[in-house]
Amino acid sequence: MLEEFIDHKTDILDIIADTKSLLDESDGTGNERLLAVKEQLISNHFNLVVLGQFKRGKTTLINSLVGNAILPSSVVPLTSIVTILKFGSEVKCTIFMNDGTEQDVPIEDIHDYVTESGNPENRRGVKCASIEYPIPLLEKGMQLVDTPGIGSTFLHNTETTYEFLDHLDAAVFLMSADVPISQVEKELLETIKSSTQKIFFVLNKVDNLIPKEITEMSTYNMNVLEEMGFTVQEIWPISARKALEAKTADDKNLLLHSGLSDLEDAIGNFLSSEKGRIVLNTAISKLKRITLQIVSQIAIETKALTDSEEKLENKINTFHKLNDNLKKDKEDIAYLIKGETVKLNKRAEDILKDFDDTETARIRECLKSFYEENHDANPTILRDNMQKAIKAEIVKGFDLFKEDIEVVISDSIQETFNRYTKRSNDIMEEFKSAAEQLFEVPMQQSDLSIDLAEDKRFFYMVQDGTSMTEEEVKSILRTFMPKSISRKMVLKEMIDLVASEVGRNCGRTRSSLLTRIGSTFKQYSGEISNLGNELIENIEQAMQKGKDIRKDSAESIQNELTSLSNTSEKLEENMKELEGLWSEIN
User: Fold this and answer.
1) Got the DSSP string for 438-478?
2) More confident call, 277 vs 471
3) Model-level pTM?
């Protein structure tokens, strides 16, 4: 088995070297991606990527696998920071910057680099974070990759989609036990379907269900997955929250009931028996994608050299019109998205206004009951206790409201993204088909896929009291008044305070909500504008190179055509060899 792995690995490395040599000779693109495949194959690193839709418990699962809450639990979609966990005998955290520099930081400070609150809009210029940790699960060469806001980091953008596909070896796909698999999750799975040979399907939050309900949910999700074409041997039911608690407290019984041990065993067995095959298959898949892209560019450049001047100009003009139409379509979608932002802002404000009214009324009723129940209390003591009651009710009410509105807003955003993502992908498919007909060359599809990461930027603040001077004055006045009147004064003061406190916290929540909505839609609009840019750039580069060479002598043109033909033939031979290796390995 080991000898076969080494032989196949050597064959793939030879094909990489041959492809790189061909690109060096023809000034082609793709060298960096080839080198990445080569380095990963040589180092034999294996990337297990945890994927999950909004509020599925992705970060908690990663922390439970590690056995410690080392990753911040509020990674948000606007940072685009990747965190890679690898084995190390000692704990070490390294931050890699976009400018090529790197720095070691205490692991406690990672929040300042990979979260939106610690690193707003990635102002620090972080490329990724790497954590070395003594995790037995990672000793066999596996790297656990956390992609914050999975959809928004890699899948929202064509270029980063390719980067994501080039880094994914196997996946843990996290579903939630409290909701059936969604359309968003299905779209995400379709996106990665051809990019990995192994997906561990996990049903999280099973502590919220009884055994019968867990079985029903697992069966339903398995049927959906099989209808999509996935071969699902098992869905692992777990409670990542309980697993983390168990490992933190060294509670073996709780860990057993969490279900995580079974998943860890499955991953461990997979690494021991299947990892080599998957590593080889992944390298072959990546090489085939790179090769197909290069072959397409060669075919377009060849046509640019062989078409008549008139035909070439017509193609270029037609392509420019296609490109202009695509830009206009994307601008139209961006304009419509602005309207969606306004509508969702209005909806959030209406929800907050209703909550302000109902919460103020609810807390006032609580105060009146408290007042009646404490009919003998001293006015000053009554005031202090009623203020504490207000604070407790504010915390309770806003905690519940925060959970509800997070779901409402996130679902609304996701539903909007689903509609416009489908429209964008349909437009992109039409553009690709038109370009394929124009140049008579098959091209790769560029897809946009959206998923939200958990965002917890909601907060509230309860004022401890009025100023000391004001309270001192009121306290003195109350000493000269009958107790019954003083108590009524306290009640009126606290009743008035409720509206102020609820309104102030609604204002803070409103600001947080509108900021989140605006930033998320702005990010999405940017991703729409980038859709298809890589495909367009590849076509334009090939056409421009052909036009430039046409200015040379007939002999130079013929030499270039011969070189392109030879390169294409060799790449086709490499493709056949890769397909043969695939058959042998599988």
Assistant:
1) HHT-----------PPP-----------S-HHHHHHHHHHH
2) 277
3) 0.52
